[in-house]
Automatic annotation (TrEMBL):
It comes from Chitinimonas viridis. Coiled coil: none annotated. InterPro entries: Diverse_Substrate_Transporter, EamA_dom, EmrE-like. This is DMT family transporter. The lineage of its organism: Bacteria, Pseudomonadati, Pseudomonadota, Betaproteobacteria, Neisseriales. Gene3D superfamilies: 1.10.3730.20. The keyword Cell membrane applies. It is found in: Cell membrane.
């Protein structure tokens, strides 16, 4: 085992970080893990609703997405490619983000990340259903560990709040976010080889911005963003760059190198970082029950990853 680790390290010394799919997936997970922290800090910085905050995030991210799309090279896209990119933007960073922001109004950042982190198991289930492939008993057992860990994390949040119904509703919104993000991951695996990771991130991200801003214009007056406090703008900008554009680009490159399932399973650092930052920065309660839930979810996802690789 030590010899294998040394060999992997020797290989990685001759490979730039942007060429290593595992490193790209881990950095993407780290960026996404900070999103919940930024959202909570933005909610605390002033009165802002989920739709307005999401519109601010995606509006600030739009120039970077357009630049990615403009700078990328490749063959002309056909009608089916454009429809696929629109679908990815719709489920991945419009619906998924909207559901997530709604959920974060009532649940902790740590619970949000643990719920979202079940998406590798959802990706695997969707792939198995699509290809009509049976799922082994080991993988079912691993999934059981994941959802047992989620149950422990839910209990942690319920113990530390008087609004138990709000926690359950918020958790439901975030689980819908995990489902739609899983669909995005599967779609990325299908289109990234033909379109390229940079173009896929740029075009699908820009289309998602269009969906979000269109929703905002239909639901809110145009000047609603102008009255928001500077703190909300600052955290939205951090969210746009660190937890939107950069991890989307990194995730697309990781999927290009590893495939959807393996890239999804590499994000074990995400929940750990989110729970740690939630405790250090937001002052969220931290308990043994939450640690148990975290360990169970991480163990389940790791088991799924190994079973899939085998």
């Amino acid at each position: 085992m030590i010899q294998r680790a040394l060999s992997a390290f020797a290989i990685s010394e001759h490979r730039h970080w942007w060429q290593d799919g595992r490193t790209l997936a881990l950095l993407s997970a780290a960026g996404f893990s900070l999103k919940a922290i930024f959202v909570k800090l933005a909610y605390a910085a002033g009165p802002v609703d989920a739709v307005s905050l999401l519109a601010l995030r995606m509006g600030l991210a739009l120039p970077a997405f357009l630049w990615l799309a403009y700078s990328a090279q490749g063959d002309p896209l056909g009608k089916r490619d454009w429809l696929g990119l629109a679908g990815l933007g719709l489920v991945g960073y419009y619906l998924s983000s909207l559901f997530d922001f709604l959920g974060l109004q009532t649940i902790s950042a740590g619970l949000e990340r643990l719920i979202l982190f079940t998406y590798p198991s959802l990706v695997l289930l969707m792939e198995a259903a699509w290809h009509r492939r049976p799922i082994s008993g080991r993988i079912w057992a691993a999934m059981g560990l994941c959802y047992l860990g989620l149950l422990a994390a839910f209990w942690h949040d319920l113990v530390h709040t008087t609004a138990s119904t709000a926690v359950l509703i918020g958790g439901g919104w975030v689980f819908l976010s995990a489902i739609t993000f899983s669909l995005y991951y599967l779609g990325t695996g299908r289109y990234v080889k033909r379109i390229g990771s940079t173009r896929l991130a740029g075009y699908s991200g820009a289309m998602a911005c269009g969906f979000v801003l269109g929703h905002f214009l239909l639901a809110r007056p145009l000047d609603a963003l102008a009255g928001l406090p500077q703190g909300v703008w600052g955290w939205a900008l951090a969210m746009a760059l660190v937890s939107t554009v950069l991890p989307i680009w990194l995730a697309a490159r990781a999927v290009e190198r590893l495939g959807a399932s393996r890239a999804a399973a590499m994000g074990t650092v995400g929940p750990v970082l989110t729970i740690a930052f939630g405790w250090l920065i937001l002052g969220e309660p931290f308990s043994l029950l939450q640690v148990v839930g975290l360990c169970l979810v991480l163990a389940g996802i790791t088991w799924i990853s190994k079973a899939k690789a085998a």
